[in-house]
Design goal:
With about 100 residues, the protein is of the alpha+beta class. The chain has helices at about 1-5, 20-35, 35-50; strands spanning about 75-80, 85-90, 95. The protein has a domain at about 1-50. Helices cover about 35% and strands about 15% of the residues. Strands 1-2-3 form a 3-stranded antiparallel beta sheet, with no helix packed on it. The chain is extended, with a radius of gyration of 27 Å. The model has no long low-confidence stretch (mean pLDDT about 75).
Length: about 100
């Protein structure tokens, strides 16, 4: 479970030395549901703080994908009312 948490591999890609992936997954699922995992993490945290081995590090990741200015202009119908007349346009073209 620690290997998975550290590396982020999928359950099916766990190394064979940890046993069958399904067994590890089932144990993780059972421990997370019955509170065992929370208890273990809390105890490890207390021990790590006591010996001053707890690193508090935060990592934030974000992505920005720039699109062309017209990329959001997919085909759609819009209706605008100007005074008493009705104007209908499609993808920026006035009719």
């Amino acid at each position: 479970m620690l290997f998975k948490a550290k590396t982020g591999v999928s359950w099916r890609d766990l190394p064979e030395r940890y046993g069958p992936w399904k067994t590890v997954y089932n144990r993780f699922w059972r421990w997370s549901r019955n509170g065992t995992l929370t208890t273990l993490v809390a105890k490890v945290r207390v021990i790590a703080e006591a010996i001053d081995e707890l690193d508090r590090e935060v990592s934030v990741d974000s992505s920005i994908v720039r699109a062309h200015q017209h990329a959001a202009g997919a085909r759609r119908r819009a209706v605008a009312h100007t005074g008493g007349e009705r104007v209908v346009w499609r993808a920026g073209r006035t009719r």
